[in-house]
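Pilot study result, target chain (361 residues):
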Amino acid sequence: MLYNLLAPLADDFGPLNLFRYLTFRTGGAIMTALIVSFILGPIIIVWLKGQQGGATNIREDVPEGHLKKAGTPTMGGFLILIAILTSTLLWADLSNHYVWSVLLVTLGFGAIGFADDYLKLTEKTSKGLKGRSKLALEIFIATVAAYWITSITPAPLDEGLTIPFFKNVLIDLGWFFIPFAVFVVVGASNAVNLTDGLDGLAIVPVMIAAGCFGIISYLVGHFAYSGYLQIYHLPGTGELSVFCGALVGASLGFLWYNAPPAMVFMGDTGSLAVGGALGALSVVTKHELVLAIIGGLFVLETISVIVQVTSFKLTGKRVFAMAPLHHHYEKKGWAESTIVIRFWIIAMVLALIGLSTLKLR
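Predicted structure:
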C-alpha cells in the first residue's frame, strides 16, 4: 500500500524514492511484522487461554513428557497470519499478482488450520477436521493457486521445472505441472505440520527458509543478478522478497512466545499456513527442487513418518522408537532443548547448501 501510494510521488519529493527499493521495503516488512507480533502477542495469548477451557491440545501419540504442556494455548498461528497480512499489505506492491497468489495459499491454508484447531477447542478433543476433508480443501486451494500462477507466468517458465546445479536446463512438464505444483504446496504444508512437535522446533527452520526464498525471489526477479548467476529471470517475482520479509518478521515475533517453554503453540493454523507459503514461493520462483534442500529438515521428518508407517504395515516392526523423527530422539533420552537446537543447526546447514545451488552451476 505504501509503495502504491508514495512511490509515484517520489519525483516530486525525493525521500519517497526509498519506497521504490525492494531492500528498504523488505526491511520495513520485517520490522512491521515483528512489532505487530510484540503488540498483539500478549493480547492473543490471553484470548486463546480464555477459549481453551477444558480442551486438550496434546495428542495421544506423543511421548509422555508432553503431558506437562497441557493447558498451553494453541492456534497461535493466528498471530503469525495477522503479522504477515498486515506487513505485506503495508509494504508490498498490491498490483503484483504473484504476491496475491502466495497470500491466497497462506490465508487459505491458515483458514483450514484454524477450522481444525477451532474444532479441537470446541469439541474438547485432540482431533479436529477429518484427514480426508482437510487434504481435499488443501488440494482445492493449491490447485486454484497453481492455475493462477501458471496463467501469470510467461512461457516457457509457466509449465517448466528448473534443475538445481544445472544452468539453462528447463524440463517442460506440460499439463503435469499443475498436479506437480499442488504436490509441492500441499507436501510442504504438511511437512511443516509434522515438524511442529516441540517448542520452537518448526518456526526457526521456517524463518530460515523464508529468508532464503527472500534472497531467491529478489535474484530471480532482478534481470542483472539472474543473468550473472545464470538462473531464469522472472519479472515481478522480486516483490515476493517483501512477503518473505513479513514471514521472517512474523516468525521471529512468534518465536518470542514459542521459545521453550512455549507460552503458545502455532497449531495447524500456523504450520499449514507457513508451510503452504513456502511451497507457493518455490513454485512461483521456479525453485521447487531447491525447497527440498532448503527445507530438508521438513523432508526428513516426513520421510521418517512414511518409513515408520510403511515398515509397520509390511513387517509389523517399527524403524524408529516413535515418529516423526524428533519424537524418536525424545524416546532415546535427548533433552527437548538439545533436539531443537541441533535440528536448527541442520536446517541452517541445509539452507546454505540450497543457496549454493544459485552459484554452483
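One observation from the pilot: The chain has a mean pLDDT of 91. A full batch analysis is planned for the follow-on phase.
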